[in-house]
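Record type: monomer structure entry
Structure origin: computed from sequence
Chain ID: A
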Amino acid sequence: MSTVIQLDKFYTALVSEYDKALNHSGINGERVAERLTKLSQIGLTEQGGSRRIAFTPEERQAKELVKEWMKEAGLDVREDGAGNVFGLFEGKQQKPVVLSGSHVDSVPNGGHFDGPLGVLAALEVAQAWRDSDYQPDYSYEVVIFSDEEGARFNGGLTGSRAMTGDIDIAKQKHLKDFDGKSFEEVIVSDGLTMEGFQHAERDLSDVAAFVEVHIEQGKRLEKEDLPVGIVTGIAGPTWLNIAFVGEAGHAGNTPMNDRKDALVAASEFVANVPNFPSQVSDSAVATVGKLEVFPNGVNVIPGEVRLTVDIRDIHEHTKDQVVTSIIQTAEEIAADHQIEVQVKTTMNVQPVAVKEEMQEKAALSVQEALGIQPFHLPSGAGHDAMALGRYVPMAMLFTRSKDGISHNPKEWSSLNDCVKTIHVLKNYLEKLCQE
């Protein structure tokens, strides 16, 4: 789909090339398409995208709609103090429980698959089990996490962090959204309370595993011509704020051999940044995405350049190696140009690896459900699985994204790929829910 899909054509576009042979084992692709379409109607933007910011009436409406579908599937529905929604499918024993799901909030003008696909995939498995009178050994919960995207408070994973106890309530109270509203004011408007939010932490000793389905948001699966992939780990970002400080001067009267041009040094540094990740890891990346030049005048030699480097990897030790190399290079370049350099780490999130045994079971499910060779790939973006993966066995399945587009109205995954992923998820969850 090269253009933004108008909503009245969204369902038709999903089912037009759908292979109905994928409707088996209780899974129904048309039902998935219908539910994706109905969610897409909530918070629809003029550009055909999604605007369901956290703790707004739009996110609430989406949650309430999924709650109705959960009840249709026979799930026991509850909501915790952070607004996380859980739909329980009782197993032969109450504990432990296996969780699967994602989120329904979006960025300001996002797509229709990021988040909702993971929720509907998890729900479709429960619906399939109910329709086929299957009862797993372990109980199973479909989950919707609040505020995964972080678009409102520049944070993210808010609901999943609250559930795992990894949230600083005092810090949350001081947050302001884009309208200047406090965090407490915002959640109260959504029917929540700070006290309830604070008590959303859950006893994770009863959680056997968490599995999240998500669109890839990249092109690896598309290049491999595969519908689904197995995530090896979720990268943790390190952000470095770097300032090259030289000396501003007149562009006409300062000889070339008597300059301390901060931009020339910064340019040399930026050109070197892409070389470092591949030297230590095939999953590491580094990006300079923000750069400011001062005083930024046409006829003034740049006296200072401030930039930010985003470094990510799914392995802590190799990420640290990239960070060290980048800092050393910045210092060496500054010294060569006889200027100063200042480096400050503003973010450092620990990556989360997917355990080998979780990957192995997922690989077996890919083979059994689809008869194809499993493909493994890292996740460069954060997900709710990252918050849970620090405490419980975690896995992620990626669905192929057309052109790798995400956080954009053009975001698209074919219904065939979505349903194939759900078949893998169903097989995988049945393995995880076995005693």
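Annotation 1: The radius of gyration is 24 Å.
Annotation 2: The chain is about 35% helix and 25% strand.
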